[in-house]
Specification:
binds zinc ion, 241 residues, alpha+beta, single chain
């Protein structure tokens, strides 16, 4: 590695030196940023939190607009994974507490549960709320990794419970074909730093934020894509072509 890049930590937000013009806007809507937002939100992680929680620039309106939906997604997922809306029967401490404190949220999650003819539990999430959160997360990860902002609606949005995925779907989710590197990361972005000899390779680079709880992968082939695995249960794929 040349002297110029030495000491640049890819996970240290203070050390990213990409063009400031690319970093002066809310990553979720493009407005002037007033604040910073954790991405992923702490709601999707467990305590003790990882030491280097990632942040992106956000306007106050966006920063405040996701928290209820993030809480909904965290609770919904945990209830679906554990098969119950009873706080005593879920695993995550933060979700137990939320379920105890918010009977309306419990009722709305319980109402989304039905039984198939063979008695299997079917959980049907509020897709508007899930989409709101997942697209937000994808935008944040794109900005964090590639210094790229996508304010358009994504071209592809898929969420699938991992236990329902076919082996081929799972393989593609875990190892998307990187293809030729037709797009080069912004100089100074974290992806650029990871492509340097001492770094890892782009497109083969799941970022493990918390073991068993949250990881994501960002790449560029025909457009920009983000894969996110939440609680090793929900596989999310968001693509801008
Ligand atoms: Zn905003």
């Amino acid at each position: 590695m040349s002297e110029k890049w030495k000491g640049l930590g890819v996970n240290d937000p203070r050390k990213i030196f990409a063009d400031e013009r690319l970093r002066g806007r809310c990553v979720f809507c493009g407005a002037k940023p007033d604040t910073k937002d954790h991405c992923p939100s702490k709601t999707l992680l467990d305590e003790p939190y990882p030491a280097d929680l990632r942040v992106v620039l956000a306007c106050l309106k966006c920063n405040n607009s996701f928290s209820l939906d993030e809480q909904y997604l965290a609770c919904f997922l945990e209830c679906a994974i554990c098969g119950s809306t009873n706080p005593d029967e879920v695993t995550r401490d933060s979700v137990k507490q939320t379920l105890r404190e918010q009977p309306k949220l419990v009722a709305s999650i319980a109402a989304s549960l039905s039984l198939s003819p063979d008695g299997t539990k079917i959980w049907k999430p509020d897709m508007d709320r899930v989409r709101n959160v997942v697209v937000k997360l994808a935008r944040g990860h794109l900005d964090y990794e590639l210094c790229l902002q996508e304010w358009r609606d994504p071209d592809v949005f898929e969420i699938t419970p991992m236990p329902l995925m076919t082996p081929d779907q799972l393989e593609f989710f875990e190892n998307p074909d990187p293809g030729p590197a037709t797009l080069w990361p912004e100089i100074g972005s974290r992806a650029f730093l990871r492509m340097l000899p001492s770094g890892d390779k782009i497109n083969d680079d799941w970022q493990d934020i918390q073991d068993g709880r949250y990881r994501y992968l960002v790449g560029q082939t025909q457009g920009n894509f983000v894969h996110i695995a939440i609680s090793e249960y929900l596989a999310c794929r968001v693509t801008w072509e």
